[in-house]
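Q: What does the assembled structure look like for these inputs?
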Amino acid sequence: MERRKTKGTEVPLIELKNGETGIVTSIRYTHGQHGGRAWGFKKRLMDMGLTPGTKVTVVKTAPFHGPLEILVRGSRLAIGRGMAQRIFVTRQKE
Amino acid sequence: MTKRKLIIALAGNANVGKSVIFNHLTGLHQHIGNWPGKTVEKAEGTLYFKGYTIDVIDLPGIYSLSTYSLEELISRKFIAVENPDIVINVVDASVLERNLFFTLQLIELGAPMVIALNQMDIAKRKGIQINVKKLETLLGIPVIPTVAIKGIGIFQLLEKVIDIIEKKQLIKHVKIRYGEEIEEKIAKLTRIVEKMQFYYPPRYVAIKLLEGDEEIERELSKIDPKIISTAKKLAKEIEKLHGHSCTTVITSERYEVAGCIAREVQSLTPPIKPKIEETLHNLTTHRILGYPIMAIFLLSMFYAVFTFGGYTSEFLSSLFYGLEPSFQNFFGTGIIGKLIWGGVIEGVIAAVTIALPYIVPFYIVLYFLEDSGYLSRIAFLMDNVMHKMGLHGKAFIPLMLGYGCNVPACLGCRIMETKREKFLAAFVTTLVPCAARTVIILGLVGTFLGIQWALMLYVFNLLVIFILGRLAFKTLPGEPTALIMEMHDFKMPHIKTVLKQAWFRLAEFIKIAFPLIILGSLVIKIIEVLGLLETITAIFSPITVTWLGLPPETGITLIFGILRKELTLIMLTTIFGTTDYAQILSPFPQMVVFTLVTMFYIPCIATIAALVKEFGWKKALLITLFEIGFAIILGGIALRVFNVML
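A:
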């Protein structure tokens, strides 16, 4: 596995604009917030392919502060905003 | 003679065509129920092939074998404990990497397996060519390319399964190797686990311990709590080395392996067809156009179901009631005749005239939406709204189906992931005014007070749904709700699979609902025949008359309403001999109060049956009692508010 040192600043996935691509650096679920389920959420996101080092492209956001449509590992996912706030990425410049 | 019985399990991601393959394999010999005591569906079927009797189990569609959802836990336990002779891993050729991630976990679980490389046609159209031979060698597992929707490759798949079993061909899967530092820790843990008696293979347990798997930690701590702390210590070491948690490192490496294999066997060429699926996706998820498209689609769906349902329902009841005279000739019109006709047969009529014309088409709609991929787009658009009531986008579908009939809506709540989400969604769904309640709202309030009052009741109902949904979300313990789902490409669902699944699910529901419905109508008929209705009216009068300010007879109609909600109105006519309800109830406030109570007071008996089937007696009773109490309190408060206002 390739492990790059993070270049540039990390931002939550939610800050990427439509069409922008980022590389996942970490998923931050603090334990206090959701008790034992923090593990479950983090694991779930990673099981869906959002592991550190993965390229994510934000396609669009649903209206009225809805979920994000993203492209990960050749498939299209919808993820809620709450989750998108906890996924950190570094912006990739085209 | 050797026993020629086999067990095959189908496993794979959601929407890869697993159930289509299941249907090809089992035809009409299937049974769709629930896993014992769980809200997870279990589809089981039998297949006869080359002298073997093969039990086929369609495991739920999942992305991983961790413990995020009940589905994942059930699947991996089934594979480890029940030891199926072969696991057929259905893999979507068009999204190979994600699917192989799951395959790798099956391999770690040590299951004997065959891969059905499905949706080869979609992959081809996307410009993905897959080298099947190479995939076989890399994984050490036989791979059969299939296009399930056209039945291609199913026979070969079965032959391969039998071939493996007859030749006792050992499947040597490749061992997935993690980084050296992790392997060393896995080896250390494996050595400890090997000495224990546990249903999962030792290496698997070791890996899962490092990943911090909740179920395995819980189970193992009963045997040897020391191993948990050892694993935690080892996991910490890895974390220090990598700067990421051990779970993250292992999951990443597993994905890395999946990615490597996928890249090695795939060759990409430009897509053949201009993608219609892409256009459809863009339209249905468009920030402006998406909503009208959804509305038009859903409304026309409703319209079609109701037209079909109304027609069929009428036809069926006229057919049944046409038999009444000849029945009376046979049994007479005495007490026995009355009990059998009014209790048993009318119960059956009620059940049949609701179940067949409405539940079946709504089921078909639900599974059509799910299989085609539109459901996930609707969930995408509606996620935010549903969050307001503590649910996420997917719950919009059962909620919407509820406006048709609560029964398929409650049963449809299984599309939610966790136990809590399913229950919350079902609770909210039973508050939705179904078609029968619409009859009352429009027939009473709409007709006598004007349509604007009827609309106001709907709005009020929505408000209550939001508030109660939120409250239930806050009160029920458990994890918060968040949406994460795949939006797979639009595809034409396999119609035969959709129809068969709707049918077999209905069969399962009928088994539970019919006895309950018949029992219910029998009890009410006995009360009537014994002349106890007056007594009941008197017993209920403190509630109906004193608290709700309604005529005492409404006590009877509300009881009948348990069977079918529209009976509350029909019984009023029967008792008073008029359809001019203004003579019975004052339009304001009595009609409004009566309608309010009817709207909330209890899901009908068929819905209760659906709740029992999905969640068991206790939770069904909990919802029922809560709603009775809520409706009565609400009705009384409404009356007093109206009285002050007047």
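Chain A touches chain B at residues 1, 3, 26-27, 34-37, 39-49, 51-54, 60, 62-67, 69, 73-80, 82-83 (CB under 8 Å).
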